[in-house]
Write a structure and sequence with these properties.
The chain is α/β, with parallel strands linked by helices. The chain folds into three domains: 146 residues, 3-Layer(aba) Sandwich (Rossmann fold); 117 residues, Alpha-Beta Complex (Hect, E3 ligase catalytic domain fold), CATH 3.90.1750.20; 159 residues, no CATH class. It has 17 helices and 18 strands. The strands form six sheets. Strands 1, 2, 3, 4, 5 and 6 form a six-stranded mixed sheet that branches. A three-stranded mixed sheet has the order 13-17-18. β7 and β8 form a beta hairpin. α13 packs across α14. The longest helix is centred in the N-terminal third of the chain and has 34 residues. The protein is flat. The N and C termini lie far apart (127 Å).
Length: 469
């Protein structure tokens, strides 16, 4: 039999206190910010003892973690214990201790709701058990997010002002410099600085970032290795031309700091002279003009954008070279272009040879009756083409491909191939062509149109011949 006293005993509410501080500053003190938050929360829970509130013994503290994301060990442990059914109520000093992101906070509250866990902020006098508490919570969190955005803007303005004064504003150190974290300045690392000078001077003689990267790797050099404030080690890596371009375009090496496209005199010492910098950049600009000329050159690139290296999985781009006054076209593996030809067993393929092989395979495909039938059915199912086909017309269109091909301009040839082929994968001893099936329904129209153009040219030439005669 239940007594009146037993009826008045409230159901125990297991309360967990969550505390957070964005930075590690002051956490080594005997009584820090986390302790202050917890002390206030403990006092609040004690004041609710008559309601059955009881403090759980586990601590959920995040010192040195931002509230803008969910990657926090204390929060992770808290959510894990909630899902295990060990907690009924979460108590915080302020709402933004749990999260500064409205989106993240809504996700946290949803997880609370799934496990019937309430949420209480002791300095803002509300909880999530009522609709008014939820409304107040969202309003407060919106202001917290607004405050965070204002702080971010102030930080960006401060960084901009510092950079315009040439000050170091953080970020990973670059090769040749170490960070004096006490004075917040860059100081020269003499051993690395020698390597930087070698890189700039050697480029004047080599003139190629790919060759220079290969030489650095052969000599056993690696990129910058460093340790973060939190102790995470970032090891050095093998060189490639991207690393070198970053060095060559970083004005820090001539004692300057860049900010939004402008450079300002820096507080740190330069490693190389302005004269050396200018000489290197004159070579880079010349190389750029050469590359741009190659890009603008009106050379056929039948497989541009659809050919890939079967060894590296990278795209292959069209390029050419001249020897003894003759031009030779190639497709170059981008991995080999970036890391050196020795890194890819294929590296380059002769453009004319591979294009001829592709066309031979296409011709064989289009002579297959099954392909012709499939194309005919696809064409009939596409009334937007605007042409009425018979199977005989489709066969004639494909039969016309061989004699018609050589009469087409390079741009027309490229258009036809791009319509038919989705991808060409080339290896040392193998060539694989992936047909663009969805494009087959319009190839007959393309071929017939090209044939008409060729016939018109033929008639025009005959007319000119007759008139001249």
């Amino acid at each position: 039999m239940t007594t009146a006293t037993e009826k008045n005993i409230p159901q125990p509410i297991r309360c967990a206190i969550y505390t957070r501080k964005s930075t590690e500053e002051g956490l080594d003190q005997e009584f820090n910010s986390l302790d202050s938050q917890r002390e206030a929360a403990e006092a609040f829970i004690a004041s609710q003892r008559q309601e059955g509130w009881r403090l759980v013994p586990d601590r959920y503290d995040d010192g040195g973690y931002s509230g803008s994301n969910m990657e926090r060990p204390g929060l992770t442990l808290l959510l894990r214990d909630i899902e295990a059914g060990r907690i009924d109520c979460v108590v915080v000093y302020k709402v933004d201790r749990l999260s500064r992101s409205l989106l993240d906070f809504s996700k946290i509250v949803e997880r609370f709701d799934r496990h019937q866990v309430t949420f209480v902020s002791i300095t803002q006098s509300f909880n999530t058990t009522s609709s008014m508490g939820r409304l107040t919570l969202n309003i407060l969190l919106s202001f917290a997010q607004f405050e965070r955005e204002i702080i971010s803007e102030r930080i960006r303005d401060k960084v901009g002002a510092s950079k315009r004064k040439g000050k170091y504003t953080g970020g990973p150190p670059v090769l040749g410099y170490d960070v004096d974290r006490v004075n917040k300045k860059l100081v020269i690392n003499e051993e690395e600085a020698e390597l930087v000078r070698f890189i700039f001077n050697r480029f004047l003689k080599v003139g190629s970032t790919t060759l220079l990267a290969a030489e650095l790797n052969k000599l056993g050099h690696i990129t910058k290795e460093f340790k973060t404030v939190k102790g995470t080690m970032h090891p050095g890596r093998s060189w490639n031309k991207t690393h070198l371009y970053r060095i060559f375009h970083n004005p820090i090496y001539v004692g300057e700091v860049s900010y939004k496209g402008q450079t300002y005199p820096g507080e740190h010492q330069a490693i190389i002279t302005r004269d050396l910098w200018d000489k290197v950049h004159s070579i880079l600009k010349e190389n750029y003009r050469v590359r741009a000329a190659h890009t603008r050159a009106k050379t056929p690139a039948l497989l541009k954008g659809i050919i890939r290296c079967g060894h590296c999985g990278c795209s292959m781009s069209p390029t050419f070279t001249r020897r003894h006054g003759k031009q030779y076209r190639y497709y170059l593996c981008l991995h080999a272009s970036k890391n050196g030809y020795s890194t890819c067993p294929l590296a380059t393929v002769a453009a004319g040879t591979i294009e001829e092989q592709v066309m031979n395979q296409l011709r064989a495909v289009f002579r297959t009756p099954e392909i012709i039938a499939q194309t005919f059915r696809a064409a009939k199912a596409q009334p937007e083409i605007g042409l009425e086909y018979s199977e005989r017309q489709v066969c004639e269109a494909f039969e016309r491909l061989d004699p018609l091909w050589d009469t087409l301009f390079p741009a027309e040839q490229t258009r036809v191939v791009q319509l038919l082929v989705e991808q060409v994968i080339v290896s040392m001893n193998e060539l694989h062509i992936r047909i663009r099936r969805e494009g087959l329904h319009s190839i007959a129209a393309e071929l017939n149109e090209a044939a008409q153009i060729a016939e018109q040219r033929k008639d025009e030439n005959e007319c000119r011949t007759n008139v001249a005669g």
